[in-house]
Fold:
Amino acid sequence: MPGPPVTHISQAHPDRVEVRGRDLTGDLMGRLTFTEYFHLLLTGDEPTEHQREFLDLLLVAIAEHGMMPTNVAARMTLAADPGSLQGAVAAGILGAGPVLLGTAEECAKLLADACARGGDAAAAGAAVAAEIQAAGGKVPGFGHPVHKPLDPRAERILALADARGVSGAHVAMARALRDGVAAARGRPLTMNVSMPIAAVLLDLGFDARTVKAIPILARTASLLAHLAEERDEPIGFLMAGAAEHAVTYEP
Structure:
């Protein structure tokens, strides 16, 4: 028989708040940074130095990427309902699928499966890429409409992972997949930021199922910045008008 339903995250009491077994005001507030607290909330453990460092790094890397459709949707929502900041943020997050948010979760699953094959990383990467290519699919984490031939964010993450000594089997597999994709397609393809995000997080001990949380949190910060600017320098209706003029009506 299963036990009673439980939560391991938090409980509020009349005189205190307990979070993951720790006193919020007596212990966590003033001691943990928000990044460290996010790690505690997400995993139940306080991060190691490397986990905190790279969680910070990855949140910075993925937060902002220009006037993306998610930001546009959020700004137009706020223009239509200036009092609904939360609704505008929600509009942006709801549109943040793998095309715009990145395929970090898919990359994590692919890397975990590829590493589980065992043996030589180069051979496994080549085999996985060839199998996906033969099936008519696309390897997640490769290709970018702007960054060619390299995604500078991806290269910086990999360089820092090497320099800090956190590169492990999953980073090696990401590089093997890059070579495998080039061989399968007959030409190199940009490794975008999603692949090293997934690789580094897995090498740092994160569960593949939690990887997507990092881009979602990062993009939330970006949406709030765009919405703060929208209130001071509104362009939401301008963008909506531009869309109206860009599309031809055909009865």
